[in-house]
Amino acid sequence: QITASNSAIRSLRLEPEQCLPLPDALAAIRTADVITVGPGSLYTSILPNLLVARVAQAIGDAQATKIFICNLMTQPGETDGYSARQHLEVVKKYAPEIHFDFVVVNDRPVSEEQRRRYAAEGAIQIGLEADAINKAVSGDTEVVRADLLAAGEKARHDSEALANVVISCRQQAVSQPAVSV
Questions:
Q1: Residues contacting 12, CB < 8 A, separation 6+
Q2: What is the dihedral sign for C-alpha 172, 177, 180, 181?
Q3: Could you give the C-alpha distances from 154 to 80, 112, 148, in angstroms and in order?
Q4: 96: cis peptide before it, omega within 30°?
Q5: Which of these, 27, 75, 83, lies nearest to 55 by C-alpha position?
Q6: What are the pLDDT digits (tens) for 159-172?
């Protein structure tokens, strides 16, 4: 229904409002080395999971390396015209408890053929606007740009390239000396 509504999304909520996570899910979050948020449909895949009671707080409290992975393209009817910055800001709005150590953004433009095909569907590529995403992150969040496009007709993340970036982020996080407060 979201993508068919033809109007901007003003707010999102769960029904019933107090959905509870499985204890195993919270345990997995607590013991994770890396937690990735994204890529995926912002309002229909990513945010509903973060709205489940205690999930965002558990992610925020976890010692894991936290990585936000930006989508490659907007999603017609859901994120029309959104930049990478807007995607991240919406996540922060609904889950302010989560501080991301890294934000991963694709830096390779889609092909002209892909651009035309997606434009015909109302989608545009995101993440190429460097300054905008930099302004959305705090000083201790690193923006990582990499060629993450898979070969093919559709704009998809290259799973191996993305996995390598995630591993690199984790290695960087554990090699940095801890900051005492």
A1: 43, 47, 48, 51, 94
A2: negative
A3: 18, 12, 13
A4: no
A5: 27
A6: 999 999 999 999 99
Q: Which two tokens stand for residue 100?
A: 């991301």
pLDDT tens-digit readout, 12-40: 888 888 899 999 999 999 999 999 999 99
For 142-168, what is the HEC assignment? EEEEECCECCCCCCCECHHHHHHHHHH
How far apart CA 70 and CA 84 sit, in angstroms, is 6
Indicate yes or no: pTM above 0.85: yes
Q: Which of 137, 20, 125, 132 is nearest to 67 (CA)?
A: 137
Kind and range of the H or E run holding 61 = helix 55-61
Number of other CB atoms surrounding residue 176 within 10 Å: 9
Query: Which tokens belong to 108?
Result: 């390779």
127: DSSP letter: S
